[in-house]
Specification:
With about 80 residues, the protein is an all-alpha fold. The chain has a domain of about 50 residues. About 70% of the residues lie in helices and about 0% in strands. The protein is built from 2 helices and no strands.
Amino acid sequence: MNESPNPKRNRRFILIFSGATDVLLGTAIVLVGLGFFPIDIADYGFPLWVILLVGGLIFISGVWMVAYNYSRLDE
């Protein structure tokens, strides 16, 4: 039959997508900080440790958001 969509499940999928985007963004920032991409961070005036810290925090929070919301899809 035709089931009505579950708004909580849809919200979880949106949060999973957002977390996955954060994981990719954090990974890109860390790789820029480590020199894998040809972007010179010194031109923007940020110390290297700040870039690595911010990228790492974005990556970790994205992984947490994906894992938490993926584990709660049954609700």
